Amino acid sequence: MRTIDKDQAYIKLESRYTVKPNSDVYLTDVAEIYCNNPSVQKFLESLKVYKSKNEEIYEFVSTIDILSKIENQRDNIDVIMVGEPEVLIEVKKSEEKSKIFEYFKVLVVCLVLFFGAGLAIIYFHEDVNMQKCMEKIFYIITGEYQKNPLIVLIPYSLGIGIGIGAFFSPVFSVKSKRKEPGPLEVEMDQYNKELDEYIIEKIKNTNKPLK
């Protein structure tokens, strides 16, 4: 049971936090904190929960660690934890990125995606014999047989490009005014969440930081 003289505090942990080596991490860095008592609020915000090492590693801080630190210093706070059960700490040195190198990487990725998608489409059409299908469609519509009917193939080819653009680009979306994320953004967010969960489980299983 909660005692009446205790101040209630709500702490919502984030999923990930990046910090430089040899730096202190405070609770306010990795969590949202709310308490009616200003002194308790200030205490929680200034509570140090992690000290980064002088190397690039992954570690995590759990709700149990935070509750233990609070209990060791103050016994008049009733803490209610919400949000993530752990916060992944990424110790990473700051890097000076070259704009030319960044543009080069973007160009390489674009070329790989362009040619990779093109080959995938070609392989698919060869596998299902799309040329014969188009010839049959042209024959059904016109009653005439024609090899490589461009009047059907050209709109079909343009439709593939426009369809992909409409699906992945918010420019063509009627919902773009609400700034909804696209399919790629959703997949990347899901990938990042699963990656963080995997790293935390890996650390738990090995009982040591992940380098």
What would you say about this model in short?
This protein is an alpha/beta fold and 211 residues long. The chain has helices spanning 27-30, 38-45, 63-73, 99-128, 130-142, 150-168, 183-206; strands at residues 7-13, 16-19, 24-26, 31-35, 48-51, 58-62, 77-83, 86-91. It is elongated.
Name the descriptors.
211 residues; 19% strand; elongated
Tell me about this structure.
- The longest helix is centred in the middle third of the chain and has 30 residues.
- This protein starts with 6 loop residues before the first strand and ends in a 5-residue tail after the last helix.
- The radius of gyration is 28 Å and the shape is elongated.
- The protein is built from seven helices and eight strands.
- By secondary structure, it is of the alpha/beta class.
- Helix content is 52%, strand content 19%.
- The model has no long low-confidence stretch (mean pLDDT 85).
- The strands form three sheets. It has a three-stranded mixed beta sheet with strand order 4-1-7. Strands 2-8-6 form a three-stranded mixed beta sheet. Strands 3-5 form a two-stranded antiparallel ribbon.
Rg, Cα atoms, Å: 28 Å
- Mean of pLDDT: 85
Helix content percent band: 40-55%
> Which strands sit side by side, in order, in the main sheet?
4-1-7
The helix-strand sequence is EEEHEHEEHEEHHHH
How is this fold's topology laid out?
Layout lengths: L6 E7 L2 E4 L4 E3 H4 E5 L2 H8 L2 E4 L6 E5 H11 L3 E7 L2 E6 L7 H30 L1 H13 L7 H19 L14 H24 L5
Parallel strand pairs: 1-7, 2-8
Antiparallel strand pairs: 1-4, 3-5, 6-8
